[in-house]
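Note to self: keep these together.
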Amino acid sequence: MGRYVLHGNPPLEVNLRHSARARRLSLRVSRLDGAVTLTLPRGVPAAQGIAFAEERADWVRAQVAQIGPVERVGIGGALPFGGVRHEIGQWSGRGVRHHAGRIEIGAGVRAPAKAVQGFLKARARDALAAASDRYAAELGVRYSALSLRDTRSRWGSCSSDGRLMYSWRLVMAPPEVLDYVAAHEVCHLLEMHHGAAFWRRVESVMPDYVTHRAWLRREGDALLRIRFDD
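Structure:
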């Protein structure tokens, strides 16, 4: 693993990565933080990879320019909750509460961002469990377990043994978007694929799912760029 600076305006740091599985040179720009990674097949010299990156410098800068800024959670800031932007303030009590359209952090909380994250996870579990139960009852199926993670590549998943997994960040999206992901994953309990039969099943429980799926594709990356580091 090495690094190379792609000179120009602005200069960009490129992470060099060798991979035994790679069959060709490839450039990837992270949609979360704009990090640029150049992957080289084993045996390909770094100089060849750098030349490849230089030839595509305009494309790389165009991709980086489309990445939105990282948002850090803290008192005086704001974040979405249930699809609505909430200011983050303080209150005299303990813990974190949702009050009068604000997210309020107790005055004695030592790690405010982590406390907000914990609050969101708890709300996400309640909302996703309720939505999963509702769609499972409607479809006449049962799931074996439900877990939350902070995933980057998918909003939810369903295993062959009936385990549902969701990103807790869905609680920041509009409620109907969270419901769509729950409906999507519960439908996988009956259709473990993304073929026509699966989408008919989703449509049967959520006729307007296309709208909510589009919102997630359009706005979801912004939720992933919210940082909870104290």
